[in-house]
Fold each of these.
Amino acid sequence: MDSNDHKPAPARRRFVGTVAGGLAAVAAVPAAAQQADPAAGQPPAGRAREAASRYPRPPFQNQSQPWPGLAGKMTPRPDHGETTYRGSGRLTGRKALVTGGDSGIGRAAVIAFAREGADVAINYLPAEEADAREVVKLIQDAGRKAVALPGDIRDEAFCRKLVAEAVRQLGGLDIVVNNAARQHSTDSILDLTTEQFDWTFKTNVYAMFWITKAAVPHLKAGSCIINTASVQAYDPSPNLLDYAQTKSAQVAFTKALAKQLGKKGIRVNAIAPGPIWTPLQVSGGQTQENLKKFGEDSPMGRPGQPAELALAFVTLAADESSYTTGQVYGVAGGAGNP
Ligand code: NAD
Ligand code: MG
């Protein structure tokens, strides 16, 4: 489950340095990317089944990190598919932007996209540079181009710059994944401040709107948008009053926009995960008490790992899903969806 035992096929890469300022960029242009080496970065077959059979169950040890948290500091480390996801060219030549691509569910989508043949730009917060560096390397190891675009998506001007930079550095855009989110557990509405309410809505709803609005003019027929919603949209927890509302908003946004963009051939779908073992949960997303038994209530008796969502993202992005739009794909271990 650790990324260190992953021995990818060697890929030649060029590392373009970090640009200081609001939009720092690390771009890698692997020569191998153009030669489509299907073996690049691919783990041996059979690994995924083995990994799933030993996924961790509660009780989990106490742990807490300052927001936004790092996957690299979690115990146990989440499985994002580093040693297991095998691609088969389903997204060859595609160009994707994934917010929150450094860790958790976003990282799992990024690894899968790259191993399916896509070039990928990731957005994350500057404090997550350590996680992001690992992801940049994983994209490069798959023989694809990696573009790192750190910055805070609560800022509309940054969201516009983010999309413009992704388009410029990738040479176009045809997959947009709005996956970044803020989740902060608060037991009572009386303790829910306007500042927190605003923070959650800015990150989860406004940024999705701003990024999508900036991206749509660049998307051609066959492109798609995937939003990471949640079971919280349908079965909200009492301590996630603000967050759950944003997840419902994302579902409505997905369905309405799918109707707007259908005739243009642009598909819009969402994924609704259940409890997944990610930094969001250990950096204020859950109480310590909930964290210890995280996933226990799921019919599977454990939380999902980010790797278990990867194929859902690939499926929704792939051309074969060309008649699938306005849908919400649940990956919740058996509970919580409509
Ligand atoms: P995560 O912490 O790995 O990912 C969330 C990411 O959001 C962070 O990595 C960070 O880069 C990004 N982010 C947060 N605020 C930001 C800001 N202001 N500017 C830029 N980036 C910012 O956790 P995750 O659980 O993988 O979360 C990914 C998505 O999955 C979120 O939309 C979350 O709501 C959703 N989700 C998670 C679970 C779960 O149990 N973990 C369940 C359902 C849905
Ligand atoms: Mg992160």
Amino acid sequence: MSMERALQYIRARIQTRPTLALVLGSGLGSLANAASGTIALATTDIPGYPTSTVVGHAGKLVFGTLAGMDVVFLQGRLHRYEGHDLDKTTFPIRLLAELGVLRLLLTNAAGGVNIDFRPGTLMWITDHINWAFEVPRLPGAVSRPVYDRVWTRDAMEVARTMNIATVNGTYAWTRGPQYETPAEVRALGAMGADAVGMSTVPEALVANSLGMRVLGLSTITNAAAGLGTEPLNHDEVLETGRRVQKDLQRLVLGVVEKTIAS
Ligand code: HPA
């Protein structure tokens, strides 16, 4: 079974026992630099691990300590639009659960559907809309809410204390890989979406059904299609990611510290 082989490969190489995992979205991969004592494993070297092909998604598992806590970063995630089915897309999440991870912080880059959420806005995901109309095979029941209320409230408090502006919102998952049409963005807005992106929802569902606590944080990297002045492109997404990186890094570190303390 590919899961067993992957676990064996990883366990032979790490000394840590991470209970917190952070999935780093487009342009956010450098967050792992904040950790110490890191061991990076290329996902292409891990037996049975599906491969990622997206620019800006490095494809590494980085084990280390952050604020004294054993953590693991997923640098580069898998997307449904890369051709993986949802079981493959969520393989890393099941792997994390097997490694003992109890909390999962999912970050992503998203388009702003809510016109008040300008590029650079940091948004806690309080709920989602599954606009791909597809669900992964779930190991257990999904308990609601998908995104942990207490952890989210604590994280908001951390942001406030650090003077980092954040908002709450609903994330809509579209399958991609093409960006939405302006008409789709208007439809999503009418349905109550604040942001739109091509990841996170399958991971959150699987993590939740495995009993993990899930925290979701979107970086609004661009106005969604039809709402901005410029046509959308992946470079803008990466550029905004770079711009907010410092605040994001501070914030995530603060959230991890608070998580240890609580
Ligand atoms: N749409 C979908 N996914 C995205 C976007 C967007 O506008 N920006 C970053 N990821």
Amino acid sequence: MTLQIPSDFELGVATAAWQIEGDLAGRGRSIWDDFAEIPGAIVDGATGDPACDHVHRLEEDLDLLAWLAVDAYRFSFSWPRVMPTGSGPTSPEGLGFYDRLVDGLLERGITPVATLYHWDLPSLLESAGGWPARDTAYRFADYAQVVAERFADRVDRWATLNEPWCSAFLGYCSGTFAPGRSDAGDSLAAIYHLILGHGLAVERLRAAQARNVGIVLNLIPVVADDLSMEPVVRHIDGLQNRIVLDLLAGRGVPADLRESCASVTDWAFVRDEDTPVLSAPIDWLGENYYTIYRVAPVGEADADAIGQETAAIPACPPMRFAPREPLTDMGWEILPSGLESALRMATDALPGVPLWVCENGAAIPEVTDETGIHDQVRTDYVRDHLEVLMRMREKGFDIRGYYVWSLLDNLEWASGWTKKFGIVRVDPATGERTVKDSARWYRSLIAERG
Ligand code: FCB
């Protein structure tokens, strides 16, 4: 093995609340619980309960993390577990669960890294308008404050949002993710209010003395062979990457997007006085990288890549997604070099901000026999992406750590149990955990670091 990881490079694993926790009885409802009840919304009809039953298997999962000996564990707080109705009273049981999680990590020498919002908006806030409504940003800040006041002493690094692009455009434009609405104009208001909520939350986190405050994005390089696709590339890159980076950098909504989306919104929700809030300085940036977008002129049928849908792109010009082999089970092109392009976008927009890869991994076919669960493609995927990071560090990029998605097979959103990303198998029927080859490999990589 040529891969050499320096000892100061953080290695971890990541999860998200709705995908693993279960225990719906112990929390309020979120948009994902409502979405799961719509027939066909989640392919296999799975719901958020019991998911991986993580709430009831907390000690076992903490022990798995200790066995892996990861430096850090990235998890998300469930807003409706902390505040069942989304605003107002907090749940002592809910907060108590996260006390046990965070303290259990610290007892095992594992750094807690928390995301405040990984897509599970409390249902009552969606009824009040959801992310297209400005008020949701203020409710998010109030929730962030409650969590920060309780956990700032113990959580080492904070992300306000996970992948706001998915919340806004899969949630409110294509409607393939919760809450399942399809209105291009609303989705643009949603992305704006998500970043506003992020900025307001940064202020509250700082006031509560939370350290290392940042955000996790899914920046995706957009490429095309055909030169005629340049305007399309720019439009998609604008919506996927530049709108968020420019808001964070204090530059406002990109001028070209204001024009190219004029048919679906008048941008009336943008307020000049928001700029300092939207661009509140951050201490770090997380990137979740899985694939690139390869776009091509309309022609043959659209590729069947999950999340790569023209319906998720406001004012989408004629085009199709055209990923190339090798593909994962998600239909996503495997291209480790795209990680470098994604991280370069982040550094160009926000120079000096240290980077973490907060998710990377693959849903792939596995072979199970009496000797174990063999998932060599997943191991190769992780190793190849880590190699890209090591080369970038040699070139001087400030990349501090990497988290595999995911510790456990879990509810892959609208794909339910049908797509498995875990380095540990979870049997959906029994909850039983079984370590895969990739987990053993990752464990030895961590143990053998330089
Ligand atoms: C990311 C999500 C994560 C998981 C992976 C496969 O977009 O943040 O929860 O679903 O994709």
Amino acid sequence: MLGQMQHQPLLISSLLTHAARHHGGTEIVSKTEEGAIHRTTWAEVEHRARKLARVLAGLGVGPSDRVGTLAWNGYRHLEIYYGAPGMGAICHTINPRLHPDDIAYIVNHAGDRVLFVDPSFTGLIGTIAPAIRDHVRAVVMLTAPEHMPALTLPPGMRLLCYDELVAAADGDFAWPKLEEETASSLCYTSGTTGRPKGVLYSHRSTVLHGYAINMTDVLGLRAIDRVLPVVPMFHVNAWGIPYAAAMAGAALVLPGRHLDGASLHGLMNAERVTIATGVPTVWMGLLAHLRATGGRLDTVKVIMTGGSACPPLLLEAFGAEFGVSVEHGWGMTEMSPVGTYNKPKPAHAGLDPAGRLRLGLKQGRILCGLDMKIVDGDGRELPWDGKAFGDLKVRGPWVTEAYFGDAPGSALDAEGWFATGDVATIDPEGFMEITDRSKDVIKSGGEWISSIALENIAVSHPDVAEAAVVAATHAKWDERPVLIVVPRPGRAIDPAAVLAMYQGKVANWWVPDAVVVLDELPHTATGKIQKTVLRDRFRGHLGAG
Ligand code: AMP
């Protein structure tokens, strides 16, 4: 027997109509390219998103067509986040920090019909235009007529002005009642190897993810919050914040391209931000600025960090010096992205400061709706004892089953699990801790050594700014760790002193066999260390292979 409840599809447009109807006057604040502050509301965003749906139809965009964006966090980008999926098209956010060849590849692979572009990426469009002319019919600049840049496009590709198009469009569009499994958005992973791969979200997965991250033991956004997503809207839907904020009726503060410590500090205090989300690099920049200037955070209660491991300094310094709690989450493009979040359980009530720090560095427990497990090299499930580490697998309704263009289910194993590519432990309370990426783990004599554990110890040395540990081929042990370090400005690194840091902290056989000092490390477009480049360079460093 089926239940007798109403069938209402879970649609992205319904989040926006909710925000407009019940929180219509709540602000969306944007820092524009020019640095000025622009203010609008959820009601106005909904009105303009409906006009945008008309604009898209006028440009020949129909159901399932891909609409590309190359844009910072701002209100126009937010309108596309809702307008494109709302009318049945797919919002395809593109990371402008990628190499132009990769961007052209992504645009062509996605088959984008229209590109919506911030004026600061005009040069980039000029570079890639000849390579994308087969698909892209129009480039719409996200600006007012008076700020339109000069740009010559190939024949058949029109240059248009966003504000002009929206101003001229009718506002009578009605959001269609789509199937909830309809594709809504597309985001390519910034993989450190191979070509980027697309993850295609649905209305249903996006809405469920929004509910999940709005639970109190996750981000738990409230109508009284003013949320600053520093994480770019071109990176996995800004971790779902633009959708979760509409559900909660929270205000959004969108920083544009101004992501340095001084700009964020100014925006946080001026706009009374209560919660901010971003990668550790951004928060380290803010911390350095606050310490250098003696600045305070007047209203911020929570800083959420994710995307890469949380440095201990972040947890310690923001709490002790600024009264802000740093919360740690983990996820990936393939998971919409949030998978785990670190909030305590009753078992943690009596922890001392060292214990709280140790706990805070873990990536956290799985969100309700998802499941996870760790397995060894033969696929056997490992115990949740906080010690055994193995490949982390996940499943759930906001986890991908196939990359864009691939056969259904092709990203899953026979039991329907998705291999994250991360290596992790899980403790008896269900707190997961990443110990490595599976391809970064060092396999020494059949045992695994965590490169992340070794890097964390190296960066706790005062002379070390950044560290990476990669496997070098070894005649006897197959692989041994090599530590590569970058000195802090004005400091010199003594390799013996750095190696001494490992005594008593890890088993003797984990200690790196060699230390290499470099001026800088290679990084990916999302700021992660490019281990593949280092691996290729240092594979033969120990004289074997
Ligand atoms: P992306 O799809 O670009 O967001 O990258 C996802 C990957 O980033 C994950 O598979 C992890 O390897 C890494 N990652 C994300 N969050 C964290 C975190 N909190 N700690 C450590 N690694 C993380």
